[in-house]
């Protein structure tokens, strides 16, 4: 997993991030979740390329432990990017602000059309 933090003064606009992803040959799509929504642990058969546009979201990696033996997690804020390799089990918790993300799938150097999303629970 790779996290690329946004260090600009103001977070980039959604259309700017969309153009950036398209220039990399990706086919991004936007999705949003309400405050407190969660995703159960799941995997994908493709690399997930995800930018947080608004709000924030926490991704939990239950199979990767930190020094204290707890599940590793990463919080994404506006402008942050996560590259999650295929097959990495993860869950997610949306913050109290809700979240909007841009996501694209990359599979073995091929672009994948918008993949099916796991179900969300409130």
From TrEMBL:
It comes from the Bacteria. Residues 34-92 form the Cupin type-2 domain. Gene3D superfamilies: Jelly Rolls (2.60.120.10). It holds the Pfam family Cupin_2. InterPro entries: Cupin_2 (IPR013096), RmlC-like_jellyroll (IPR014710), RmlC_Cupin_sf (IPR011051). SUPFAM superfamilies: RmlC-like cupins. This is Cupin type-2 domain-containing protein.
């Amino acid at each position: 997993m790779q996290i690329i933090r946004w260090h600009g003064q103001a977070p980039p606009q959604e259309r700017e991030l969309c153009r950036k992803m398209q220039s990399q040959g990706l086919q991004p799509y936007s999705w949003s979740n309400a405050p407190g929504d969660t995703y159960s642990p799941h995997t994908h058969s493709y690399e997930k390329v995800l930018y947080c546009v608004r709000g924030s979201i926490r991704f939990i990696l239950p199979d990767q432990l930190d020094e204290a033996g707890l599940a590793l997690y990463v919080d994404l804020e506006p402008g942050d990017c996560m590259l999650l390799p295929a097959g990495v089990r993860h869950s997610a918790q949306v913050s109290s602000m809700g979240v909007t993300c841009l996501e694209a799938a990359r599979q073995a150097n091929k672009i994948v059309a918008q993949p099916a999303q796991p179900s969300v629970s409130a």
